């Protein structure tokens, strides 16, 4: 594998060794241009197209805590050419040569279909990635259940009692359902748990915990597995768990399809606070809108997604397209202010047309994929020295002080634990996330001690913790004034870009907003 630097453009690129699987095609190439744009880095990927490769490419960028400012995808046929304008989550272009090299090697391996990972690298948020940080090396606990206050607290408490350490976790809630993936180790050895008898005992205890908080006949699932050779990516696994749990079935039904135009459009009205108003005045507070249309002349389905911009949005959308066996032939992704616009030209991999019923289900599933990562409520962050039972104590304190968790994520980083929790009032009678009494938060702080911070905006919508460790001093407050709200930015949404899709290629280095991958 040879690395070359073009002195004229400043682009770095890697030409991997020829893959015999793609005999007759040139080797894949990944180039990273840090010169052309002052405020962003341009990542260009071209290689042999295969099902699922776009999701894997976007997953690499997402895992590295990068923000995709703009993206163009062209993969109609046997070859793909993708372009991503990226920055780190601090808004800076990429200057770390180790990170650049990692991106090049990771993307080249993904295009070739390999499962290897390059050596270790640290992202701008301090997260470590690489061959020594694979989920395959962990014991994984998976739970899907009804969203009930105190469930995660009970789970972590029982794990602590069984001498297990919750090394990392991500938990989502959506439409009254909850799912979490927890990687656990033995609290004494810090090694994955592999003994079959002990795994069986832990799984039985977890099933009892979940069953105790469910009514007869309610769906629930608990699974515990030791280290495996290739474990699914955590976010992809969470999407799959909630999809299998059919969280997308809640909510208003989609409108009927008009047979003369084969078009379906659904608007999801789920507020992050306040009233949704049309005309772009408060569009960021509206729920996502998804449509699918049949372009018969080109044999495409055109999928449009318009929503509030947030981290990992592009990844979540492409996951849903991949889940429905859609191949993305072309796509353009951009934003206007805080509104993200995504347009995908797709075909079914097997070539079969979508029925009216399938289109309605597809729209529900895309809406769910876009929504389920978003956690409403007050964001509470911890960055505390690692100790046995820390997470159990944190979740217990929330529960005993009348708070419910709408989402959570934490990870061990060397001698510390870094995490984000979204809390609401457990006894809220409004049907939505209730405002938390600040006096209860003071009690939680006193019980947990140093290293706990509160988001200044109590009506925030989160991304499931993708900003861990990336907070400015003004965005958190550990004393008073935690209810000061952020001023809402007015924005002008962009027009749809479908009619301009083909003409935009030559203008691709122009200014744009940000779509956060």
Provide a descriptive summary of the structure in words.
It is a single chain. The protein has 517 residues and is of the alpha+beta class. The protein has 4 domains: 2-124, ACT domain (Alpha-Beta Plaits, 2-Layer Sandwich), CATH 3.30.70; 134-250, Alpha-Beta Plaits (2-Layer Sandwich), CATH 3.30.70; 257-370, ACT domain (Alpha-Beta Plaits, 2-Layer Sandwich), CATH 3.30.70.260; 375-486, 2-Layer Sandwich (Alpha-Beta Plaits). It contains 9 helices and 22 strands. Residues 42-117, 140-220 form the ACT domain. This is ACT domain-containing protein ACR.
CATH domain class of the largest domain = Alpha Beta
Multimer state: single chain
Overall helicity: 10-25%
Question: How many individual helices?
Answer: 9
Query: What would CATH call the architecture of the largest domain?
Result: 2-Layer Sandwich
At the fourth level of CATH, the homologous superfamily of the largest domain is ACT domain
How would a textbook summarize the main sheet?
11 strands, antiparallel
Structural class: alpha+beta
Mean of residue pLDDT values: 76
As for the CATH topology of the largest domain, it is: Alpha-Beta Plaits
Beta-strand content estimate:
25-35%
Main sheet: strand order? 1-2-3-4-6-5-16-17-15-14-13
Radius of gyration, taken over Cα atoms and rounded to an integer in Å: 23 Å
Low-confidence stretches: 1-9, 12-22, 255-281, 456-460, 464-514
- The domain tally reads 4
Separation of termini?
28 Å
What characteristic shape results from the CA principal axes?
A: globular
Number of DSSP strand runs = 22
């Amino acid at each position: 594998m040879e690395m070359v630097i073009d002195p004229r453009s400043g682009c770095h690129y890697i030409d991997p060794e020829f893959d015999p699987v793609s005999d007759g095609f040139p080797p894949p190439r990944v180039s990273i241009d840090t010169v052309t744009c002052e405020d962003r880095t341009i990542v260009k990927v071209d290689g042999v197209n295969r099902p699922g490769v776009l999701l894997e490419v976007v997953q690499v960028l997402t895992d590295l805590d990068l923000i995709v400012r703009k993206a163009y995808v062209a993969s109609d046929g046997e070859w793909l050419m993708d372009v991503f304008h990226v920055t780190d989550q601090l808004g800076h272009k990429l200057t770390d040569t180790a990170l650049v090299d990692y991106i090049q090697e990771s993307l080249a391996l993904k295009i070739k279909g390999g499962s290897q990972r390059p050596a270790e690298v640290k992202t701008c948020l301090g997260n470590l990635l690489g061959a020594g940080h694979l989920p395959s090396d962990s014991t994984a606990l998976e739970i899907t259940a009804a969203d009930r206050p105190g469930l995660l607290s009970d789970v972590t408490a029982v794990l602590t009692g069984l001498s297990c350490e919750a090394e990392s976790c991500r938990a989502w809630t959506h439409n009254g359902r909850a799912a979490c993936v927890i990687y656990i180790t033995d609290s004494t050895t810090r090694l994955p748990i592999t003994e079959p008898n002990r795994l069986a005992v832990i799984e039985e205890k977890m099933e009892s915990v979940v069953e105790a908080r469910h009514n007869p006949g309610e769906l629930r699932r608990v699974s515990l597995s030791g280290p495996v050779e290739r474990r699914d990516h955590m976010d992809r696994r969470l999407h799959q768990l909630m999809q299998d749990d059919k969280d997308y079935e809640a909510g208003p039904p989609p409108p009927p399809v008009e047979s003369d135009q084969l078009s379906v459009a659904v608007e999801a009205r789920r507020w992050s606070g306040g009233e949704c108003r049309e005309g772009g005045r408060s569009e960021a507070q509206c729920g996502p809108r998804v449509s699918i249309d049949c372009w018969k002349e080109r044999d495409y389905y055109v999928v449009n997604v318009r929503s509030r911009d947030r981290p990992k949005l592009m990844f979540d959308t492409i996951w849903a397209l991949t889940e429905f066996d859609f191949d993305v032939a072309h796509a353009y992704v951009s934003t206007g202010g805080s509104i993200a616009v995504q347009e995908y030209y797709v075909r079914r991999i097997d070539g079969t047309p979508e029925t009216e019923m399938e289109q309605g289900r597809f729209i529900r599933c895309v809406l769910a994929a876009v929504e389920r990562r978003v956690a409403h409520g007050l964001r509470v962050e911890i960055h505390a020295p690692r100790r046995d039972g820390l997470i159990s104590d944190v979740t217990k304190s929330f529960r005993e002080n009348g708070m419910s968790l709408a989402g959570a994520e934490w990870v061990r980083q060397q001698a510390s634990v870094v995490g984000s929790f979204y809390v609401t009032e457990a006894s809220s009678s409004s049907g939505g996330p209730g405002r938390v009494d600040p006096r209860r938060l003071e009690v939680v702080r006193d019980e947990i001690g140093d290293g706990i911070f509160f988001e200044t905006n109590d009506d925030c919508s989160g991304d499931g913790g993708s900003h861990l460790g990336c907070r400015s001093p003004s965005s958190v407050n550990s004393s008073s004034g935690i209810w000061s709200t952020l001023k809402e930015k007015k924005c002008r949404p962009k027009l749809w870009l479908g009619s301009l899709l083909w003409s935009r290629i030559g203008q691709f280095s122009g200014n744009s907003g940000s779509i956060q991958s």
